[in-house]
Design goal:
With about 160 residues, the protein is mostly helical. It is built from ten helices and three strands, in the order αααββααβααααα. Helix 4 (about 65-75) runs parallel beside helix 7.
């Protein structure tokens, strides 16, 4: 079986070069792998908490949030468990709703939040696809932050309510 796109995306990043909260950047790719392969809710939650409070903390983004975005988008193409998919989208929301941490801003990454939202915009239609699932509210929250065409978002939301 070939590797998933998310795993390939994880492997192509030099995670040690991206700041996180704490001192174990090598834990980020492992937590991402565990999240996308999680079968149970407990497995998914455990992996999620290896990323939340590491790449994003209460709306404060660290440098590793940026390469995490394409991994999360690629994961939405995979056949994830429902619990893993819930938390992939939740982590994406936490990142696109965030802004650069003070330390990141001091490193010159003041626009980290904007860059993460721009990266998420690359997978806009993957997020739109989630509107028809139990993750609708989280998908809308992500789209409200990354969609430049608010009329399109309103039309899709209205159209899906009519189903």
């Amino acid at each position: 079986m070939s590797k998933s796109l998310a795993v390939i995306e994880i492997e192509r990043v030099d995670w040690a070069s991206f700041p996180i909260l704490g001192d174990r950047p090598e834990a980020v790719p492992e937590s991402l792998r565990r999240l996308i392969s999680a079968v149970t809710e407990d497995e998914a939650m455990d992996a999620y908490w290896g990323l939340e409070n590491v790449v994003v903390v209460q709306g404060q983004l660290y440098g590793a949030a940026l390469p995490t975005v394409p991994v999360l988008l690629a994961a939405l193409l995979d056949d994830l468990s429902a619990d893993a998919r819930d938390l992939v989208l939740e982590l994406l929301f936490q990142i696109v709703a965030g802004e650069a941490d003070e330390e990141e801003a001091a490193r010159g990454n003041v626009d980290l939040g904007d860059r993460c939202r721009a990266a998420a915009r690359q997978g806009l239609w993957l997020v739109y696809r989630e509107l028809g699932t139990r993750r609708r509210e989280t998908a809308v929250a992500v789209l409200e932050r990354i969609e430049d065409d608010k009329a399109r978002l309103a039309a899709y939301c209205a159209g899906l309510r009519g189903k």
